[in-house]
């Protein structure tokens, strides 16, 4: 049995939420989803940095580090995913937040298995009809209001489609519904600029530090004409894109998965403890 399959204990969760919690009522809070390997959180400093950023923007006190790390004591061997949810807590009147918030931290720890077939063979993705609203004040970090992503993910039911690609309301490429976007154009690595909307993933942040990659404004035609395309996050790793469909199902481009795809994948997967790819 592989280490990834050894984590078989039941899911662990913290206590339930009260109905007057502002995270439930208004999405007034933040979350992080963290890959845990043998009890050790992967890219942990990057997750803490993003959570700290979100707390600063929203004005929510950041819990002590030991509180955030306490759930890790319940992680067993193999892979798990830790979801941390931090709300402003209860209180305030209507939308007005309390003057002195008492944050509420909740968490869930679940066994996790990635999708190695998608590492090896690549995936099919589609453009979404939904466009993300532009709100620079909320761009980058993981706030609790993800209804745009929910609506976008509801656009397809075809199991052969792994992800949907989102643009903002001005037509610029931003992200996939739960992953970041990367492509190679004219030999250069690029990823969408995320200063207007979207989530700045922790794996994306690490790749930007390690590789000669540029943040750019781009439209879908750029991705369709790229030499290689990837989607990735800190849980699943990097999936090469083998086929891009339009919102109506038309094929916009296909890519044979080759050495160019493997170079980015190898750097990303080394950060997460995953193989660069698996043989058929």
From TrEMBL:
Example of a GO biological process term = 4-aminobenzoate biosynthetic process
* EC id: 4.1.3.38
A Pfam family reported for this protein in Swiss-Prot or TrEMBL:
Aminotran_4
UniProt keyword annotation of Glycosyltransferase present: no
What keywords would UniProt list here? Folate biosynthesis, Lyase, Pyridoxal phosphate
Q: What class of enzyme is it?
A: lyase
Per the record, what are the reactions this protein catalyses?
A: 4-amino-4-deoxychorismate = 4-aminobenzoate + pyruvate + H(+)
What binding partners and quaternary form does the record give?
Answer: Homodimer.
Concerning NCBIfam families, the annotation shows: pabC_Proteo
- Provide the family line: Belongs to the class-IV pyridoxal-phosphate-dependent aminotransferase family.
Protein name listed in UniProt = Aminodeoxychorismate lyase
**To which species is this protein native?**
Halomonas fontilapidosi
Q: What is the lineage of its organism?
A: Bacteria, Pseudomonadati, Pseudomonadota, Gammaproteobacteria, Oceanospirillales
